[in-house]
Amino acid sequence: MAVDKTIYNTLFDKYGVQVISTDGTNRAVFNAFLQPLRYKNKIYLSGVPTELGYDGLNKYLLLAPPEVDNTFLEDKSYTIYFGEDTFSADHCEPVYLGKKKLYYWAIVHKEG
């Protein structure tokens, strides 16, 4: 099963939000998906209860296109900006289909 790169990238371009990752010198601008993580267990009871579980309003899932240099997502010296909110990456991994990189997923936390 082959993934058409142009169709796949259209999803990020059309439905993603603009994200900027920078360390002050180097900068990457790309479209990504950003959504809050919800926890089903009761470890995070200080969060907001929702239909899907507790929303701690601090941890987010970031899905980024495969063309982004992983340094912008993995290096702790980089800050990720979405609008006026700033985030730092806790963990990042690429997702592959065979040998083809499809996207990155990262757990990020809101700063401040």
Strand order of the largest sheet: 1-2-4-7-6-5
Order of helices and strands: HEEEEHEEE
**Structural Rg:** 15 Å
Q: Tally the helices: what do you get?
A: 2
Strand content: over 45%
Structural class given helices, strands, pairing?
Answer: mainly beta
Uncertain runs: none
Largest sheet composition:
6 strands, antiparallel, barrel
Question: Could you give the distance between the termini?
Answer: 43 Å
Shape: globular
What helical percentage do the residues reach?
Answer: 10-25%
Mean pLDDT: 80
- Tell me the total number of β-strands: 7
Q: Can you put this structure into words, describing what you see?
A:
The chain has 112 residues and is mainly beta. Helices cover 13% and strands 55% of the residues. It contains 2 helices and 7 strands. It has helices at residues 5-15, 71-74, and strands spanning 17-22, 27-39, 48-50, 53-64, 79-82, 85-97, 100-110. It has a 6-stranded antiparallel β-barrel with strand order 1-2-4-7-6-5. The radius of gyration is 15 Å and the shape is globular.
